[in-house]
Design a protein that fits this description.
This is Oxidoreductase molybdopterin binding domain protein. Pfam families: Oxidored_molyb. InterPro entries: OxRdtase_Mopterin-bd_dom, OxRdtase_Mopterin-bd_sf. The protein contains five helices and twelve strands. The protein has 191 residues and is of the alpha+beta class. The strands form three sheets. It has a five-stranded mixed sheet. Strands 3, 4, 9, 10 and 11 form a five-stranded antiparallel sheet that branches. The longest helix is centred in the first third of the chain and has 28 residues. The N and C termini lie far apart (78 Å). Ligand MTE binds next to loops.
Length: 191
Amino acid sequence: MRKMNNILLALIVLVLMIAMVVAGCTGQNNDQEPLIEADPVAEKNVLTIEGSGVAGTTQLTLQEIQGMQLDVIEDDYFALNNFGTKQYFSFKGVSLWQLLNKVGVKDTAQQVVITSEDGYSVIYTIDEVKREDYIDETNPEKKYKMIIAWEENGEVYDSTQYPFRLVMGQKEPGDINKQNWVAKVINIKVD
Ligand SMILES: Nc1nc2c(c(=O)[nH]1)N[C@H]1C(S)=C(S)[C@@H](COP(=O)(O)O)O[C@H]1N2
Ligand SMILES: [Mo]
């Protein structure tokens, strides 16, 4: 009797195992299902550009932005922070204005909101985004564009963790510009 029970148990386990394998296979073979489910890790590598001021919603990885044939800007950006500290940081990236043109900015666009992963955000007018003469208060020769950088002081940001930073010079002497350097940009909304 005990032997019969063991055989029965073994059979039940076998049937269950076969059922699991079959269920697994049908799931994988179903064409309707996406191969990759919405993966929070995968989504953290994209920058979303959206709003009524652009042609549509665009999601771009660092690799895609690097492949867009935009002028690569490499410069030492002057920073003044709220403690009065003056410092230079080298950045590599592309002009935000050029990037917006590439994705299709409309004539009606008025403002740009740049938002980070942690919710930190800044707002600029389109004219401020277009501006190519942000300053270094200590060097009258210097002119900066507003850029989306992917490399800071020789280190490329981790491409899986929102690898983009908004960077610009000062609007005028005394402008505490470092606070506008939004790190880990997740969204650019143009309206
Ligand atoms: N995403 C994000 N970016 C941010 C901030 C922030 O809190 N979150 N703080 C800003 C401020 S106030 C300063 S001074 C600088 C600090 O930059 P650091 O962390 O590279 O020194 O980042 C700016 N960018
Ligand atoms: Mo700051």
